Amino acid sequence: MAVDPQGTDIQRFIEEDTGGPMVMMNLVRFKEGGRASFSEYVNAVLPFIVKAGAQPLYAGDCSTPLVAEPGQTWDAVMLVRYPDRATFMKMVTDPEYQRFNHLRTAALSEAVMQATTPWANSP
């Protein structure tokens, strides 16, 4: 199962950049005992998110899905608004940020990181 972005995913993410703001949606499924490691990761990278000019919008535990196929349930969701994709890439490639990525990888059995772009006239 996917946890970390691969080279082709990153390349496509960069190529599809519209230059405007984006919200990164993170859906995560924890390994047994992984919640503590993920919490440590989030606490460690939050200063990098703020320093990048990004804005955490929401983080919370997932509950009972109303519509989902088997295997489509998640443990937690996070939404972070970034000024643009370049800002996100600069943040995640920072060597200081990279020092903490192992905590995320160790915590998760599966993840979805999906960039979203706002619709016209959306809040």
Molecular structure report:
Helix 2 runs antiparallel to helix 5 (101-107). The N and C termini lie far apart (34 Å). The protein has a four-stranded antiparallel sheet with strand order 2-3-1-4. The chain has 123 residues and is of the alpha+beta class. The protein has one domain (7-65, 73-116): Alpha-Beta Plaits. Helix content is 37%, strand content 26%. The model has no long low-confidence stretch (mean pLDDT 91). It is globular.
Q: Which keywords apply here?
A:
single chain; alpha+beta; 4-stranded antiparallel β-sheet; globular; Alpha-Beta Plaits; 5 helices; 123 residues; 37% helix
| Count of domains | 1
N-to-C order of helices and strands: HEHEEHHHE
> Approximately how much beta-strand content do the residues carry?
25-35%
CATH architecture: 2-Layer Sandwich
Distance between the termini: 34 Å
The backbone outline, from C-alpha atoms, is globular
Biggest beta sheet attributes: 4 strands, antiparallel
- CATH class annotation: Alpha Beta
Figure out the total of helices. 5
* Number of strand elements: 4
The whole-angstrom Rg is 15 Å
